[in-house]
Amino acid sequence: MPQLNPSPWFFIMLTSWLTFLLILQPKILSFTPTNQPHTNTTLTTKMTPWNWPWT
C-alpha cells in the first residue's frame, strides 16, 4: 500500500505547515478587525417555578 510510505507526504505536510506558520499567519494576524469586541450587559430573567398539576 503506497499511502503508508510517509517519505513524500511528510515533507509536503511539513512544508505546508511551515509556510502557514511563517508566511501566512503573520499576514493574517496583521489585519485589524472591523468590529471591536465589547462587553454586553447580561439580562437577568426572573425564574418562576413550574407548578405541576399533579402535586
From TrEMBL:
TM helices/strands, residue ranges: 6-24
Subcellular location, record wording: Mitochondrion membrane
Lineage: Eukaryota, Metazoa, Chordata, Craniata, Vertebrata
Gene: ATP8
Gene Ontology biological-process annotations: proton motive force-driven ATP synthesis
Entry membrane topology: Single-pass membrane protein
InterPro entries xrefs: ATP8_metazoa, ATPase_protein_8
One MF annotation (Gene Ontology) recorded for this entry: proton transmembrane transporter activity
Family listed: Belongs to the ATPase protein 8 family.
Gene Ontology CC annotation, any one: proton-transporting ATP synthase complex
Keywords: ATP synthesis, CF(0), Hydrogen ion transport, Ion transport, Membrane, Mitochondrion, Transmembrane, Transmembrane helix, Transport
Name under which the protein is recorded: ATP synthase complex subunit 8
